[in-house]
Amino acid sequence: MSSASSGSALWFLSRGTGIVSLLLLTAVMALGLLTRGGRAIPGLPASAVTLLHRNASLLSLAFLGVHISTAIIDPYVSINVVDAFVPFVSAYQPFWLGLGALALDLGVALVVTSLVRVRLGLRAWRAVHWTAYAMWPLILVHGFTMGPDIRSGWLLGLSVISIAAVSLAATWRWSTLSASPR
């Protein structure tokens, strides 16, 4: 395989896994909003939704790992491991890539604190988990700015569906918060 075709394959793999990561993280965000406080979604057991939320989170990490690895390996642009984890230091589109790095850092904090949740305590875990509300929009903006093809066609449709799904889940959550007795 020539260097040009391997670079092209890496680019497509990076883009594809980035898109799948966005969709999975959208599902994770929506499920997290819908399962507030361990409450069930009408018609579904809370444990099933929680398990789906956790497994989608882990699957998104796998796709995110491939997305980041292929972006680093791809010779088309110069992105290194430091650029992936340290926000706003990249020579290539430092602000927009930095948003992705910041989202990744927040995601790593979410995963690490979730793994040690029992030792950390619910209050501290929940405080860190609130950063997901910042992470998801950062991911969305990173995708819109780093991938110009996401602003048109079917990718734009997926982005709109992602925004709608999280918006509907957030609306449902806050409507049930205001409806529940205090």
What does this structure look like?
The structure is a single chain. The mean pLDDT is 87. The relative contact order is 0.13. α4 packs antiparallel against α7 (132-146). By secondary structure, this protein is mainly α. The protein is built from 8 helices and no strands. It has helices at residues 3-34, 46-73, 81-85, 94-115, 117-120, 122-129, 132-146, 153-179. It is globular, with a radius of gyration of 18 Å. Helix content is 77%, strand content 0%.
- The helix/strand series, from N terminus to C terminus, equals HHHHHHHH
First-to-last CA distance? 64 Å
> Percent helix among the residues?
over 70%
Radius of gyration using CA atoms only: 18 Å
How would the global form be characterised? globular
Strand content: under 5%
Helix/strand-derived category reads mainly alpha
Taking the sheet with the most strands, its summary is:
none
Could you tell me the mean pLDDT? 87
Flag low-confidence runs.
none
* DSSP helical segment count: 8
Count of distinct strands: 0
